[in-house]
Amino acid sequence: MKHLKRFAACCAAAVCCAAMLLLATGCQQQQESYTPPEATPSVSKPVIAQEGVLRVGVNANNAPLAGQPSSSTKIVGIDVDMAAALADQLGLKLEVVDVSTDAAGALTSGKVDVVMGVNKSDSPSFWTSDTYLPTAVALFAQSSNSTVPANSASTKIAAQVSSNSAWAVTNEFDNSTITTTEDLKSAFSALESGKVQYVAADAVVGSYVSNNAGMDVHMVALMQQASGYCVGVLDGNTQLKQAVSNALSAMNSNGVSSVIQKKWLGTAMDLSGIKLTAGASDDKDDMGEVLNSANAAIGTLTGNTGSSTNKADSDSKTSSADSASSSADSSSTGDSSASNGAASTASN
Fold first, then answer.
1. Does the N-terminal or the C-terminal CB of the chain have fewer CB atoms within 10 Å?
2. CA–CA separation, 206 vs 237, rounded Å?
């Protein structure tokens, strides 16, 4: 009987030791962090200049595509997030480079491998991908059921002063239609208070500003045919062109592009179902002439010529968010300028 009790005690001790060993092993396994396997790069030198790194050029004075918060030297924005996703899709690390408005020069000199935020309607001298972010001069209203405005005395539209959106309004509607504001946020405030029925702004920038201000507004019409932002690559770099096209297609299919747009704009940007105003041109060449004329008119009104920054870029300095919004409405499609910024680099 004593031997039986001793045997039972030994068995119990063995079971306890095994349980403690399993518990300790489990805890150790839980403490180990998961390290995802490194992706295999889909391109390498000489397709890209630096092995394992995609150098992406952005215009850091073009919020919300790319900008620098006052509290940080890091460049952030839609283009930066898209660049990070693009590099990840290609199995590469990311280096973001501020090329200001000289995308062509940065590509030609080899400063970057690709550039972001290229407007398709500008007909650049290098290859451009399909658009990853559509845009146009748009009209915003408080109700999604608002009708496309007619050119009548009762129509009231607010727009940022000296912007291409403001010029587009005066080009299509009577002068009594427009109410100009010092910045785009003020234009949306006029809409919210009922002083105007619509706000004219770049579709991307208008969505960014209204979303940041917590305003519930809707795009109800486009004042021009939709264009969009693309990735630019030197035309002779066939392998990189194909790799970028494939990566963007995958990002659109898996929803990454939509997630990035929702983060910055509050919604995925889809202009396909939005109606055109009566004066919207269906000829991109005509619209290019319109925008060139608008830039010339803005330069005359503000005392600036050539590629100098117009007045709308220097207004609204009360906060970093307002400053970025004001600058963005003037430097995006339909509200363009050539703000010059010092080149800087930020690694993701």
1. N
2. 35
